[in-house]
TrEMBL record:
It comes from Massilia agri. Coiled coil: none annotated. It is found in: Membrane. The keyword Membrane applies. Keywords: Membrane, Transmembrane, Transmembrane helix. PANTHER family: STEROL DESATURASE (PTHR11863). Pfam families: FA_hydroxylase. The chain crosses the membrane at residues 44-62, 82-100, 107-126, 138-157, 178-199. InterPro entries: Fatty_acid_hydroxylase, Sterol_Desaturase_Related. This is Sterol desaturase family protein. Residues 226-359 form the Fatty acid hydroxylase domain.
Amino acid sequence: MSKHVPDPTPATLLPSVGDIVDDTTGLLRADGELTPGQGTITTTLALSLGFLSFMGVLAFLFPQYLTTPELRKAYNVDWCRALLFGGLLVSGTLSLFNIVFNRRRNVNIIAFAFVLVTIALGGSTVPVGDFPDHTPYLGMDWLVLDLLGSTTVFVILEKLFPLYKNQPIFRKEWQTDLVHFGVNHLLVGLMLLIVNFVIHRAQLIVVGEEGLQQFIGNIPFLPQLLLCLLVADLAEYAVHRAYHEVPWLWRIHSVHHSVETLDWLAGSRLHMVEILVTRIAVLTPLFLLGFDKSVVDMYIVIVGFQAVFNHANVHLPWGPLKYLIVTPDFHHWHHSSEKVAIDKNYAAHFAFIDYFFGTAVKTDRQFPEKYGVVGSRIPDGYLKQQVYPFAKK
Ligand SMILES: [Zn+2]
Ligand SMILES: [Zn+2]
């Protein structure tokens, strides 16, 4: 990456721990284009896969604390073992090659150490025993699998159909958004617990209309899913608009708007309070109206995809579809700091909602030129952003 300074001294057999740490943190702090030929690309790959493999083996070793019950039912453990084996093989080969040929040797020592520790802990053949359910857990498996899957899918999409061709994968402040991504995934269990608790309370207070619930539950899958998306998006629209128009709510939501380079990872930048409030506000009506579980599950998959995709650095020829559904073009305008775009394009699934309420951006230009928040300066860094809305002005 551009800011990295190569090792000034010739390689010795035993590098100091200080140098190893300095070089690795130097790489992690850097941003910019990955220039081929210096070993940076293979080093980044080796370090990422080495660390993901290490997290993967921990999830296998302590499934009761590090796996997500809802997700665990959906994936095949043997595939995950094969994935872990592949990760170790690629990371081990690349890091060893780089150590031998002295290409970013110190960082590759860390990558290779992750591989060795992972193998020592059992590697891809680590036994996974039975374990009790209902333990407090971190969604480590969810983090590893989603990070691997999303990075692969979206980096390919962003390279094939880029909106901004020269935007590097490791763009400015990628580290902050990766921490948001990591924490949001690890705390998935805690968030589900809070959201379910509130929805359960709401169901007790507002007893759903049984006739209506039965009617909705009996609608065939596809039209029921479309209705579910519409109800969810109307709730999302209302909450999102409130976040923009009520000053103290805006302080919370402005964290999401503080990112100035949009890509698939940028959508993860959300204040914890916003994640909880939005989920509760959107899921409560879905449960009160009696949507079928299979429909709500599919809705969760769609909202998960669209929340990431709408921020991606991707441009596709949407044609008239852009008036119907929310595309990256539509949501990119929502993040613009240009006057024409302020407090516009709130919807998350259906663009026509904003056209209906008169809040769609009106412009002939296809894309905005400037992104971010007008006026206030929101700090960079995960913890600073969590504190920001509650700090004194
Ligand atoms: Zn917004
Ligand atoms: Zn956004």
